[in-house]
Specification:
The structure holds two protein chains of two kinds. By secondary structure, chain A is mostly beta strands. Chain A has no helices and eleven strands. Chain B is built from no helices and eleven strands. In chain B, a hairpin with a 5-residue loop joins β4 and β5. Classes of the chains: A mainly beta, B mainly beta.
Chain lengths: 115, 111
């Protein structure tokens, strides 16, 4: 009965490859997010989707493309991976803005290592 | 641009002591403030959420306070235990719907 799940947990790949990370939530939330935690442990938002529509798009390279097939899923596809993409990527979900409970719930993270 | 700072970056205290973690933010126009803990190699666990209209929230041995006007929040942990060892992160949600995280305080409880 995991609330927010991500696959895979670990991903090791070579520069130039294309990879995807999947995220699913079973909390009935409308809003989902992707965050990146760098080597200094600093967490920064990348994207946010509300009911399958993009609402936040931080300044990230266009090699990163989120895709939301339905409101329970938000996948992150990364093209032409670079060494600097190595980080831990966290998915999160919440109720949408304006509701009384918009606490964010986080997945366990995906550790991406680009060699 | 919102900036969130947590001091100290690391803290070690003997088991059983009470302790306070600090969080400050530059833009007081926030919707809420959330405290998380992160264990090594793990995801984030939400501890407490304080709405902008609230002054504090309590859960068990944890108490979080919010002073929006001064841009400060504290997380008080009573009777610390070794299992409390983790990195504690505060995050503020602003009008742009973004959650801005602090750099974290790495807490070690010494048995």
């Amino acid at each position: 009965d995991t609330a927010v799940s991500q696959t895979p947990k670990y991903l090791v790949t070579q520069m130039g490859n294309d990879k995807s990370i999947k995220c699913e939530q079973n909390l009935g939330h409308d809003t989902m997010y992707w965050y990146k935690q760098d080597s200094k442990k600093f967490l920064k938002i990348m994207f946010s989707y509300n009911n399958k529509e993009l609402i936040i798009n931080e300044t990230v390279p266009n090699r990163f493309s989120p895709k939301s097939p339905d409101k329970a899923h938000l996948n992150l596809h990364i093209n032409s991976l670079e060494l600097g993409d190595s980080a831990v990527y966290f998915c999160a979900s919440s109720h949408p803005p304006g509701t009384s409970d918009y606490e964010q719930y986080f997945g366990p993270g995906t550790r991406l290592t680009v060699t | 641009k919102q900036e969130v700072t947590q001091i100290p970056a690391a803290l070690s205290v003997p088991e059983g002591e009470n302790l306070v973690l600090n969080c400050s933010f530059t833009d007081s126009a926030i919707y809420n403030l959330q405290w998380f803990r992160q264990d090594p190699g793990k995801g984030l666990t939400s501890l407490l959420l304080i709405q902008s209209s609230q002054r504090e929230q309590t859960s068990g041995r944890l108490n979080a306070s919010l002073d929006k006007s001064s841009g400060r929040s504290t997380l008080y942990i009573a009777a610390s235990q070794p299992g409390d060892s983790a990195t504690y992160l505060c995050a503020v949600k602003g009008g742009n719907e973004k959650l801005t995280f602090g750099t974290g305080t790495r807490l070690t409880i010494i048995p």
